[in-house]
Amino acid sequence: MKKDNTAQVSGVKQRSLWQDAWRRFKKNKLAMVGLVFLAILVLIAVGTIVVDLVTNNYIYENYVIKQNLRGRLDPPSLEHPFGLDEFGRDMLLRMLWAVRSSLFMGVIAIIISGILGGLLGAAAGYYGKTTDNVIMRFMDILLAIPSMLLAIAIVAAFGTSLVNVLLAIGISYIPTFARTVRASIMTVKDQEFVEAARAVGANDPTLIFKYILPNAMAPIIVQTTLGVAGAILSIAGLSFIGMGVQPPTPEWGSMLSSARTYIRDSWHITVIPGMGIMLTILALNVVGDGLRDALDPRLKN
Amino acid sequence: MYKYIIKRLLMMIPVLLGVTFIVFFILNMSPGDPAAMILGDRASAEALAMKREELGLNDPLLVRYFNYVVDMLHGDLGTSYKNSLSVWEQVTERFPNTAILALCGICVALIIGIPTGIISAKKQYSLMDNCTMVVALIGVSMPAFWLGLLLVIVFSLNLGWLPSQGMGDGGMELVKSLILPSITLGTMSAATITRMTRSSMLEVIRQDYISTARAKGVSEKTVTIKHMLRNALIPIVTAVGLQFGSLLGGAMLTETVFSWPGLGRLMVDSIKSKDIPLVLGSVVFMAVMFSVVNLIVDIVYAYIDPRIKSQYKKK
């Protein structure tokens, strides 16, 4: 495509909307710290998977899961910076191996709800009228059940397998996404460029996915970041009451659940996993806030 | 006003039917034979068949749902598989405990959230505002059940000031046992409400009518409460209403941490023992309570903002 004339004349380098947003995002130090922290978490998650593949689960089976009754509940020391847990396993290793459950489960759950909620919301916002009414009334009903309750009902009915927990959390976030997508589509769909594309003969899916959605992306991206934070919290909560990830798989919520039994004996097995959850959620929230300010500066006060 | 309330009540009916249907549908899809669960593994085939007939399990799902709703309207939520007690009685026996906890939680949230939000907005970018915002950010990021465990470690186990488990009997004991669970339950909501109050106050704080009010000599206190807060209140009330929903969900975790004898614990226990009627009854009950709270929130709107009420009058 030819460069914009005005940009050429004034000699200013042309920037896309995303580059602009990235420039604004970079100025937000707190958000950048959050982003770096998230990047480290992703590296840890991928790193532990690679280690498992390379060592054929040797470290996972012999250090992360295997119980070692000597040195149970040892407090943090030089040898074990995070101490040992109630079965004498190294807390640092368990914390590292737990990153992937929380992070990937949170992301996958939100992808499920993002796709389903997004499609429903897009249809509702684009077609309006009866379609909108039917879909949104259904969403109202889903929204009338607190998301944690809905997730619990699903897990209670189908059991605590990984897929069920993901589905449960994913489904409980569908209405939030449907609402966000619907609202942002409705602000864009009547603008001239959409009309122009329709006049040229674009069909509905092309219009929605190629013209409308890319221009309505900002609130959806913000919602996704905050959604992942919420999903990670929900997964940790479900695991805490014994309905999420099951021991001995390391997961922050289920680590806290077993720590509760030993709360009188040692503090570190309670404090450390919670710190992991809190820092992850904090990073996601900070990045979400930063994205909102960067993508839509009008919202900032 | 009555018309408005009645209209809202009527609008609640389809939502409640939908909610009960979804929960009923999900829980009836669960694998496993309830008859076998009641009678045990060694029951004969005939006995199982008879029990199934008695429970109405051979009817189509919609018929069973219809019967369930009719029974529900008569205050009958079925009987528990495990101990053959009435679900309705178990649920209503536990619910007040959860209600006390949720109310105290919301009080904690409001008492902390609204004043700090107002002060933060009025002194935007001051040291106090920045500190509040950092604390609030940490507050929304902290899993409530973890905070509960930390509070237990500090205030029950180390300082020995407050009980770590259970619900005290009457008077001071009850108050003492309520403190930690309420703080646990209310903190995240407090943080959310602080952030909400601050941003919604900031929206109105620079409006012309605020300057006008100040110019005509209204005291700063009146300006803040009558002119700013009242106009900023709608989003805050919405947030409070939504918080109540997550509070009911969070009650399950908080009740688990503190062994609080509420509906949330009942639900967790009944899920673990696969007692489907009890799970169904308590989820439906909680969802209904949540809808009632939302209704109350909507009615409160109309009191705060006369414009909303007049909208309904025209129709």
What does this structure look like?
The complex is a heterodimer of chains A (301) and B (315). Chain A is an all-alpha fold and 301 residues long. Chain A has a single domain, classed as MetI-like fold, CATH 1.10.3720.10. Helix content of chain A is 74%, strand content 0%. Chain A contains 14 helices and no strands. The longest helix of chain A is centred in the middle third of the chain and has 37 residues, at 91-127. The radius of gyration of chain A is 23 Å and the shape is elongated. The two termini of chain A are 37 Å apart. Mean pLDDT of chain A is 83; it is low at 1-9. Chain B is mainly α and 315 residues long. Helix content of chain B is 80%, strand content 0%. Chain B is built from 13 helices and no strands. Chain B has helices spanning 2-28, 34-39, 45-55, 61-73, 87-122, 127-141, 144-158, 171-205, 208-215, 220-258, 263-272, 276-304, 306-314. Chain B is globular. Chain B starts with a helix and ends with a helix. The mean pLDDT of chain B is 83. The interface between A and B is large, with 47 and 52 residues.
